[in-house]
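hey so u asked for the seq, here:
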Amino acid sequence: MNKSLITAAAIFTLAATGASAGDLKPKTGHTIHLGNVHGAAYYTVEDQGLRLVATVADGEAGNPVRFVSTLSDGQTMVIEIPQASSQRSQELTFRRVGDHVVVESSSDLRAALTD
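ran it, structure tokens below
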């Protein structure tokens, strides 16, 4: 458990330089806020592709959950948080475009569909 807390703290520290929706830079954190679920994501450049790591937890007391995916060009990873049956799920999409990762929230996707 202590190792998880230390890892989560390191990622949150990395996320202090996070950006809003848009391009994510290598080894630079992106803060995640999806309802009560908060966390951070970053990626590194590996031989096999761009290794994306996202760690989230439900509030401060929730256990952290980590998602790891190595993305090739055009691939995506989605974090989706279900809501009450009367509400839409909240989503955050990480999309590899060439040599970088683009971050899109579900509200960004709705806006893109209406333009």
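The beta strands are 22-24, 30-34, 37-46, 49-58, 65-71, 76-81, 90-97, 100-105. The first strand starts at residue 22 and ends at 24.
lmk if thats what u needed
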